[in-house]
């Protein structure tokens, strides 16, 4: 055993020439380069995995938003259909007559407005008469400017 220990000591403390030192240095650099390349490759693979995860989560979010949009469009179409059905003239008339107890008029009287000109406003009395004022109304069925006085 002592002979082996002496041989190990000799090998350990052996004089190395420059070529052997350069070879060891190159071997260390090559190992460091392999380790560095492995780390870069592992980092790149991790980055790819993270980006794939991000893309997948964004796709899920987009799909969810598209589904919500489709639901909203369908709901809006149903609401428009309901609105059109409720606003139908026949339904409005039926509700007015049955639920609100309204009746159709037997006679329609149209009133035409009096054309106010610069002289009519200037000559009109400022104070209202105390009794028996004049009211200008269009005669029923006449639209030629003739007025009835009350």
Polypeptide structure, described:
- The structure is a single chain.
- The protein is mainly alpha-helical.
- The chain has helices spanning 2-12, 18-86, 89-98, 118-123; strands spanning 136-138, 147-149.
- A two-stranded antiparallel ribbon has the order 1-2.
- A hairpin with an 8-residue loop joins strand 1 (136-138) and strand 2.
- It is rod-shaped and about 135 Å long.
- Residues 146-150 have low confidence and may be disordered.
Q: Beta-strand level of the residues, as a percent range?
A: under 5%
Sum up the overall morphology in one term.
Answer: rod-shaped
The number of distinct helices, counting runs of at least 4 residues, comes to 4
Radius of gyration: 51 Å
Query: Which secondary-structure class do the elements indicate?
Result: mainly alpha
- Order of strands across the widest beta sheet? 1-2
The parts where pLDDT drops under 50 for at least 5 residues are 146-150
Described by strand count, sense and barrel closure, the largest sheet is: 2 strands, antiparallel
CA-to-CA gap between the ends?
146 Å
Which whole number gives the mean pLDDT?
81
> How many β-strands, per DSSP?
2
Order of helices and strands: HHHHEE
Helix content bin: 55-70%
């Amino acid at each position: 055993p002592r002979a082996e220990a002496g041989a190990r000591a000799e090998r350990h403390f052996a004089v190395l020439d420059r070529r052997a030192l350069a070879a060891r240095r190159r071997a260390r650099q090559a190992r460091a380069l392999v380790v560095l390349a492995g780390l870069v490759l592992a980092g790149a693979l991790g980055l790819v995995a993270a980006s794939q995860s991000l893309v997948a989560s964004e796709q899920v979010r987009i799909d969810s938003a598209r589904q919500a949009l489709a639901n909203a469009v369908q709901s809006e179409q149903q609401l428009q259909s309901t609105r059109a059905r409720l606003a139908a003239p026949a339904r409005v008339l039926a509700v007015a007559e049955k639920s609100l107890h309204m009746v159709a008029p037997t006679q329609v009287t149209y009133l035409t407005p009096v054309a106010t000109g610069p002289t009519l406003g200037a000559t009109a009395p400022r104070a209202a008469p105390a009794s028996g004022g004049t009211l200008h109304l269009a005669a029923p069925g006449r639209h030629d400017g003739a007025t009835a006085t009350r």
